[in-house]
Write a structure and sequence with these properties.
This protein is of the alpha/beta class. It has helices at about 15-25, 45-50, 65-80, 95-105, 150-160, 170-180, 225-240, 245-265, 270-285, 295-300, and strands at about 5-10, 30-35, 55-60, 85, 90, 115-120, 120, 125, 130, 140, 150, 185, 190-195, 200, 220.
């Protein structure tokens, strides 16, 4: 029987995470909750999780999701995991998700070399597989990391998550690296997860609302200036890493991210902070500065 351990990175978790993890625990052999530097405010919650038999690892300071994931993955591998399941603290998996993912691994032949199994849909929005394996599994070039079931072989061959990126693009970079090592990312067909994807803001370029024909104000996916710094910096970092071997992918990312950055800077909220964050992130991406956001910038945009 495959030994599956779930790793759940957490930061400022609410009490809702306790029943969520207890439900998740029915699908795996063990759970590891990694606190990404929340501090004493979460002491009672993590004590409750530990009392329920969940392993708790606590980082002294906030270091980003990549570091939190790696902390848990290393512990899972040391505990003999054959597969590691990554789950964000705000993700609800269907009750048969892990078994569905394991069935994909079991049904894949060695030539297909599945290294990661990911979700089929997020909040009802289905994935669109780019390829189909000889066994009929949908394969994708990249996917959201919550719900990743990663084989031990893949982790030991391709490595862990890139901690220099801190948060955004961590899953994209990992997917690209996994594929560079000859592994495939397969979809767990029919699985649909519930996952928080942030909030939407009204589209108001320079304060003027853009409306649909119905009269309703158009909206866009909003990211805080803090997140926009990492989005700008890390996307440029990845584009520079892949410009020669994946030129078409780089052009697609450039078009997509430029659109998002322009909207954030002209539509607001916090337009000045957005401009400062995106501009600094762009410069830092070009000069390949990595790691945590500079303290001076964090203070300026929050």
């Amino acid at each position: 029987m495959a030994h599956v351990i779930a790793v759940v990175p957490m930061y400022r978790p609410s009490s809702e995470v306790v029943p969520r993890l207890l439900t998740l625990g029915r699908q795996v052999d063990a759970l590891i909750a990694v606190d990404d530097g929340t501090g004493p405010a979460a002491d009672a919650l993590f004590e409750e999780l530990a009392a329920e038999g969940i392993a708790v690892l606590r980082l002294e300071r906030n270091s980003g999701i990549a570091t939190a994931l790696n902390t848990g993955v290393r512990a899972a591998l040391a505990d003999g995991a054959d597969f590691v399941l990554n789950v964000d603290q705000d993700t609800d998996l269907p009750p048969d998700y892990v078994q569905t993912a394991l069935d994909v691994f079991a049904g894949a032949n060695p030539v297909t070399r599945v290294g990661v199994v990911c979700v089929d849909a997020v909040n009802g929005a289905p994935s669109l597989p780019t390829w189909t394996s000889p066994e009929g599994f949908g394969l994708v070039p990249e996917a959201i990391q919550t719900g990743f079931v990663i084989s031990r072989e893949c982790l030991e061959t391709a490595g862990l998550f890139d901690e220099r990126l801190v948060i955004d693009c961590v899953d994209t970079e990992y997917c690209l690296r996994v594929r560079d090592h000859g592994f495939r990312i397969a979809v767990a067909k029919g699985t649909d997860i519930r996952h928080s994807i942030g909030r939407r803001a009204e589209l108001r370029p320079v304060g003027v609302p853009l409306r649909h024909p119905s009269g309703r104000v158009a909206t866009y996916q909003y990211h805080s200036p803090f997140r926009r710094y990492y989005i700008a910096r890390n996307n440029i970092d990845l584009m520079l890493r892949n410009v020669r071997k994946r030129p078409r992918w780089v052009l697609t990312v450039l078009k997509r991210e430029m659109s998002g950055m322009i909207v954030s800077m002209v539509s607001g909220p916090q337009r000045v902070a957005q401009v400062l964050a995106i501009t600094t992130g762009t410069v830092h991406g070009l000069v390949r500065r990595r790691g945590m956001i500079p303290d001076w910038l964090r203070r300026a945009i929050t």
